[in-house]
Every structure is written in C-alpha cells, then in structure tokens.
Amino acid sequence: MSFQGSQSTTTTTTTTGSVTVEILGQRLSLRSDKDPEHVQNLARYINEKARAIQSAAPKVTNEKLMMLVSMMVAEELHEAKTEVGTLKVALQERVDAALAQLDELDDPNA
Fold first, then answer.
1. Which of 6, 29, 101, 104 is the most buried (most CB within 10 A)?
2. Which residues does 7 contact at the CB level (< 8 Å), separation at least 6?
3. Beta pairing partners, 79
C-alpha cells in the first residue's frame, strides 16, 4: 500500500483501488489492493488510538502522537503474533496426541 497526503476534511472511496482517509485531520489518498472498507477501518482504528493518547497528553505534537500510536500498534501486533505462535504449538500438540491415539486404535498388538 502506498500513499500520498493532502489536507481536507472528507473521507471518500473510489473504485480504482484508491481510498481517501482522514487521520487527525490529515487527508491521505492511498492506493491499495485491499478492500476500501478495510482501509477505512484501519484509519478509524488509528484515529481511535491517537484520540486516546491525545486525551491523556493533549500537548503532544502530532508527530510524537503518531510515533506513540505506531508503538502501541506494534506492541499489539507483537502480542498477537506471540499468541498465535503459542496457539499453533498447543494445536500441534493436540493434533499429535490425537494421531497417536488413532495409531493405537489401528494397531491390533496394542
């Protein structure tokens, strides 16, 4: 996904793979192969995070605010990847145990 920025207060989508979103009053025209509604949802999510930080630290600059949002989202991503990895290991252990039980049922000498 690549993007170009310009100022505005509206949010629009087009059918050409281009989506215009607004984050903290900054209008961004994005080209994406993702569904426009998905891109809009991502922008809303970033705005929610930014507003939450802004309410706790109203004097922070937009540049620092977006760095803090980036760190929050990166932490969420890291936690999610860790959880997925843990779930994959647990699932594989269950699959292996189930296969072992099936092998025991198939083995007439067991």
1. 29
2. 25, 26, 27
3. none
Which amino acid, residue 93? E
What is the 3-class SS of 26-68, one letter each residue? EEEEEECCCCHHHHHHHHHHHHHHHHHHHHHCCCCCHHHHHHH
* Structural domain boundaries, residue 94: 2-106
- pLDDT by 10s per residue, the chain, length 110: 544 444 443 444 445 589 999 999 999 999 999 999 999 999 999 999 999 999 999 999 999 999 999 999 999 999 999 999 999 999 999 999 999 999 988 876 75
Overall number of domains in the chain: 1
